[in-house]
Amino acid sequence: MTITSVAAYLRGLEFFSDVVERVSLNDWQRPSPCEGWRALDVLGHVGEATSMGPAILRGEPTQMAWPDPPGEGVEGDPAQWWRSLMEPARQAVSEADLDAVVDSPMGPRSVRDGLAFPAVDLFIHAWDLACSIGIAHNVEIPDDIVDFSYHLTDSIPEDVLRNPGIFGPAVPPPPEATRSQALLAWMGRDPLC
After folding, report:
1. In angstroms, rounded to a whole number, what is the distance separating the alpha carbons of residues 101 and 15?
2. Which of 136, 132, 128, 104 lies closest to 118, judged by CA?
3. Closest CA to 136 of 168, 105, 180
4. Potential cystine with 70: which of 44, 141, 155, 188 (Cβ 3.0-4.6 Å)?
5. pLDDT of residue 83
6. Three-state SS for 160?
7. For all residues of the chain together, what is the average pLDDT?
8. Cα separation, 190 vs 182, whole angstroms
9. How far is the C-alpha of 156 from the C-alpha of 71, rounded, in Å?
10. Alpha helices per DSSP H over the chain
11. Domains of the chain (ranges plus CATH)?
């Protein structure tokens, strides 16, 4: 059975949170696998997208004027800042009309469809955080999310998918790569970071 975008998104919030809770205050300045970003910038990027979600789900206008680097938008304790965004996002999903068509950064789409890319982003960026603090070998993206991710990206043209700010060029997976590692390599990460 294929996972829904809603279930993937809600699981992604938890998956990302699990890694955030493992990052110490001293580790937020470590470099991430996202070129030019620190672990704090990965958190800022995911947090800004997550905070925009409830407005999109309610059909409210949104702006994509995010701080550069994204970590500049993180206020106070990073883990606490993330926690303050998670519950409103979860609540907005539970109250949303999943068939409603809303404006999103990708154009008009149903709420259900609009949750798919942010769901994948949560899993990939959780791994990025894990890589930043040296625990990537302990973070495996579940098989159903791997399948969901490939299914989602199959419909995106290669030139859009490999555009800066989305995913980098695919890298060869290591021999005997897990499914999680193969997905990460396909999304431009070195899964053995």
Report:
1. 27
2. 104
3. 180
4. 44
5. 97
6. helix
7. 91
8. 10
9. 28
10. 5-20, 39-57, 78-95, 111-114, 116-132, 143-154, 158-161, 179-186
11. 5-136 (1.20.120.450)
List per-block mean pLDDT (blocks of 10 residues) for the chain, which spans 193 residues.
90 98 97 96 95 76 77 97 95 91 78 89 97 97 97 85 82 95 95 93
Q: Name the token pair of 191.
A: 């899964």
Pair 84, 75: CB distance under 8 Å: no
Classify each residue of 152-181 as buried b or exposed e, where b means 16 or more C-beta atoms within 10 Å of its C-beta.
bbeeeeeeebeeeeebbeeeebeeeeebbb
187, two tokens: 């999304």
Q: Residue 122: helix, strand or coil by DSSP?
A: helix
Q: State the pLDDT at residue 105.
A: 63
Per-residue pLDDT reduced to its tens digit, 32-82: 999 999 999 999 999 999 988 777 777 676 666 778 899 999 999 999 999
Could you give the 3-state DSSP secondary structure of residue 192? coil
Residue 21 amino acid letter? E
Q: Using the structure block, give the residue that is written with the tokens 């431009």.
A: 188
Distance CA 28, CA 159 (A): 32
pLDDT for the residue numbered 61: 65
Instruction: Please give the angle made by the CA atoms of 55, 155 and 142, to the nearest 5 degrees.
Output: 75
